[in-house]
Design brief:
By secondary structure, the protein is α+β, with helices and mostly antiparallel strands. It is 50% helix and 17% strand.
């Protein structure tokens, strides 16, 4: 410590102070001019050192002018020494933080790291000031300071551990603000909103702020879920158990279609459906997919589980469960609606208005009822089809070329062109809420047309009128309309499709 004091006394002369002031002024003036030429932000980290350097030169001039007044000269010398040390500190901090560290970590330096550098530099400046300005023997302070430091470090070891851990977290780009992480041992999932000296603040999906000591993050297994800007998205995993009566290939196709219908599931990389395990009660399939925003992962899982339930039951299957008693009754279908409701809806449709009550009753007895969950696609634009859907309950959205053009309400119907002519689906129809649909297929209509061939004339007229209304609706939504097909053309299509020529 004595040798350090002698080195300082010998080398920190008037010329050295002038050099420090000149270098500081020249450096920050250059930075100022460069930033101004680039129209970059100029803050106090650049302006303050320039002002301090100029003030130091002013004090230097006053010190020389008052050489005949020793008391004032000494006071000005000490004040100038303090200014020079502050200028030197700011130069070192800027070079360390804004130049070296920013280039090294290739991003904006975290505030925590900047504060640590500033504390260390200003601590050294304070020690130098004690010796150069106040002429205090540092060797006498060193012993006392060492003992006090050891006592404080022992008493604040947890705080120091958290502070050092905070430094590591701030330096890690994967743990930057805005990233979502999972701490499995603590059952925590949340977004990093702040990293402090002692703790890191997480925002959970319930919008709670959870304070986690920094040492806990470094001492436990942390899963990085990333953020919206992360290129390599982590996969979300959903496990579904289905019964042995459903063939694995059919199950995989069904589950994959559920994933593809969900808009928030990323198409690239493509989602996966894997047969994960064979259990006592059924087969477990694992669905792996990725979402753009980690904050939406649980909400997307909820949507997928909901759609899986509807899709599986719609195919006539169910989910396995442990049986603790013998069930003697027959399994009832999950969807049941009164036959009077279906008959009433069929009678209200102009396509079936010419049928008598006996034909309507026969049709109702064979029509299957299909249920779709919110967001599920009933038909997709361009797909082949040969059925008509009657809306018994719920509401659907009509989308043409990715643009929503209208809604289909309860007691309405759609798909008549595909049913009667086999034409591809002209639009995508998607469920807005849970919808119940009665599906009238070609196989059900063919016996009726063979028994009553005269109704094909009426059907052709109805198709022409339905097409005219549809084109008018689409035109209002800025979709170009086609020329309305003639009545004779529809009649010919009907006969060809049902082999009645």
């Amino acid at each position: 410590m004595a040798s350090l004091s002698a080195f300082i006394d010998v080398n920190f002369t008037l010329i050295n102070r002038m050099v420090v002031l000149f270098v500081t002024l020249l450096f920050f003036l250059t930075v100022y001019l460069v930033r101004r030429a680039r129209h970059a932000k100029i803050d106090s980290r650049i302006i303050t050192p320039i002002a301090l350097s100029l003030f130091g030169f002013l004090l230097l001039y006053c010190e020389s002018a008052m050489s005949g007044l020793p008391s004032y000269q000494t006071l000005l010398e000490r004040l100038q020494t303090i200014v020079v040390l502050i200028c030197l500190a700011k130069l070192i901090i800027y070079l360390t933080v804004d130049e070296y560290l920013r280039i090294h970590i290739k991003r904006e330096v975290p505030s925590f790291l900047r504060d640590v550098v500033m504390i260390v530099v200003y601590l050294v400046v304070g020690i130098l000031s004690l010796r150069l300005v106040f002429k205090i023997d540092l060797s006498a302070i060193a012993v006392t300071t060492t003992v006090i430091t050891a006592a404080v470090a022992f008493g604040l070891q947890n705080t120091l551990a958290n502070a050092i851990s905070g430094f590591s977290i701030q330096s890690d780009r994967m743990l930057s603000t805005g990233s979502w992480i999972t701490i499995k041992e603590k059952n925590l999932f949340g977004e990093i909103v702040n990293v402090g000296f002692r703790y890191t603040t997480l925002r959970t999906l319930e919008m709670n702020r959870v304070i986690v000591p920094n040492s806990v993050i470094l001492q436990n297994i942390v899963v990085i879920q990333g953020n919206q800007d992360l290129v390599d998205k982590p996969a979300s995993v959903v496990d579904v158990m289905l019964g042995y009566d459903m063939p694995p290939e059919q199950a995989k196709v069904l589950l994959m279609q559920v994933l593809k219908d969900e808009l928030e599931v990323l198409a690239n990389p493509e989602p996966q459906v894997l047969l994960f395990s064979i259990n006592d009660s059924g087969i477990t399939y694992q669905l792996r997919f990725m979402v753009a925003d980690p904050a939406r992962s649980l909400s997307v899982q909820d949507l997928i589980y909901t759609r899986i339930w509807y899709a599986v039951n719609r195919e006539g299957y169910s989910f396995p469960f442990l049986h603790r008693q013998i069930i003697m009754e027959e399994a009832r279908p999950p969807y049941k609606i009164s036959s009077e409701h279906v008959v009433q809806d069929l009678k209200s449709i102009d396509l079936f208005s010419m049928l008598d009550d006996g034909d309507i009753q026969l049709l109702e007895a064979q029509v299957p009822v299909r249920v779709f969950g919110p967001g599920e696609s009933v038909v997709n634009q361009g797909d082949s089809g040969s059925s008509l859907f009657v809306v018994l309950k719920g509401e659907l959205e009509v989308v043409v070329d990715g643009i929503a053009v209208g809604r289909i309400l309860q007691d309405s119907f759609f798909g008549e062109m595909s049913l009667l002519t086999g034409a591809p689906r002209s639009a995508t129809v998607r469920a807005v809420c849970e919808v119940w649909l009665a599906e009238v297929t070609k196989a059900l209509m063919e016996p009726l047309l063979r028994a009553h061939p005269e109704i094909m004339e009426t059907l052709s007229s109805i198709l022409v009128e339905r097409e005219r209304r549809t084109k008018e609706s689409v035109s209002e939504s800025s979709i170009s309309a086609c020329v309305i097909t003639r009545h004779e053309y529809y009649l010919k299509r009907l006969k060809q499709f049902f082999d009645l020529l």
